[in-house]
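Your task
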Amino acid sequence: MPHFGSGGPVSACNLYLSGYLCASIMLYYLIIIGVLNLGLGYVLAVYLGYGPPSLSAAWQAIDSFAEARVARSVVVPVAAIEPESPNSESVEPAPEESLSVAPAAEELEEIAEPAPAEEPTQASIVALLRELADGAPPPRGSEPPTDEERFPWRWSLQPSAEPEPEPRPPSESPPPPLPERPPSVAYLLPGLPPEGSGGSHSLVQEARGLRELGADARICVPADSLATAAAVYGNRDDLFATYRSDAASPGVGDSSLRAAVAEAGVVVATEYPSVELLARLARERPEILCAYYVQDYEPLFAGARTSRSDRALLSYRAIPGALLFAKTHWLRNIVSEMHGVPVAKVSPSLDRELFHADGRQESEQVLRVAAMIRPRTPRRRPLATLDSLSAIDRALGEAAQIVTFGCDEDSFAALRRHAVPRIAHLGLLSRRDVAELMRRCDVFIDASAYQAFGRTGLEAMACGAVPLLPALGGVREYAVHGENAVILADGSAAAIADSVIALAGDPARLGAMRRAGVLAAQGFTVERAARSQLELFAAAMLRSRPVPAALAS
């Protein structure tokens, strides 16, 4: 009976040669596959904007793209991997039942984040930005000093960037007329917390500002967010339109989102989950102008190389040709540096009907200090805030009145290890209540690790309170250190307390800074911000509109 090896020396030799040939072919294919994977990583790194096209950035891009693609709550937007031309044939999307882009509560900008072992600081945020840009954590102990002319500290216009025309102050010549038929605008807001957020405050007052200028504007929210939106902002004017967002009806491929957007010619994403909504909507309505209102750098809301951070990183280039715009030069610089895409500049808004110094109550006996405590958002640094208040209380005693707001009593009670004996916690406040509080205070403390804009700081200034603000971010759109605000590169509790105690010891300086702040805040209005957006949209639509052949000739 034949058995293995019965063929003698010739058969053994043939078997050996066959095995050698198979092994060589396998090795050859492994080398080819490795080279192709490396090339793919390089291309993805450059295309997705993960900083310099280095080897580490290439591998990071592969990891990030894979994580975003396989995350259970997201399918990578088809637009992110389609050809540049929006009219070319594209890859077919995944079946609707596999989509679930409605953001969970923890994915929204101001909704609870898992508490880290330590609160973020300006230094840790800078390190995270450099890690995202370079593809690898910076060496320990190598943190350079603060340099306002370099990434990621730069808060002014980049020298190489084309300056955006700022709206003219009312005292100067009147602004140019708006188009006879202003574009219709729909903002996509994927959810909001019970008390709203700085980003949603901006959207609401600016959308209503667009309406005052004659434009049709609306804010599209998930159906289950309408009650919250109406409670915080009111909806008698039907500002809010709804779309379905549950797992069974994701609100992407069905008619609900198209109905909410209606006939809007400009559709604006406002957070990274809404970019995914907009990418799919653009496939169904290619004639719309896709825009992205960048109100923060959302990859900072989660750790590097997490699914949530990856989705935010992908959002800035997810829709080829989209119009990105922001209210601060700092955000423009960060997104342009990290992703290689242009970001236009619009004017920030301030609701001067609410936030003003009329009827302000002064007090010469005590220093009145207010601070926001928000435990569910660690980058707002509630523990450092309370530690600074404790130091102020120990130093000034009865000469200081300390008030906090921003969270409910249960959340505040959980911080009892850092409690201040003479503190008065007011809980969650409406915007009107915040304005009234600021008119009764001398100093407002924002101990955040960074602020992309820092709306509450501007609102405090408008009401006559001097804000203490982080140096990292975009607060210099309105704040000038030593003139109308205190800007700290060292946001430690001790540095904050020392600054407040110094203001308490120099009432003349404090009064001068209060008056300068009120004056500076008068340069910001809802009308000016809305006009800057309308002008931007009208110009972008004009550029994207084909020139008739008769005119071209």
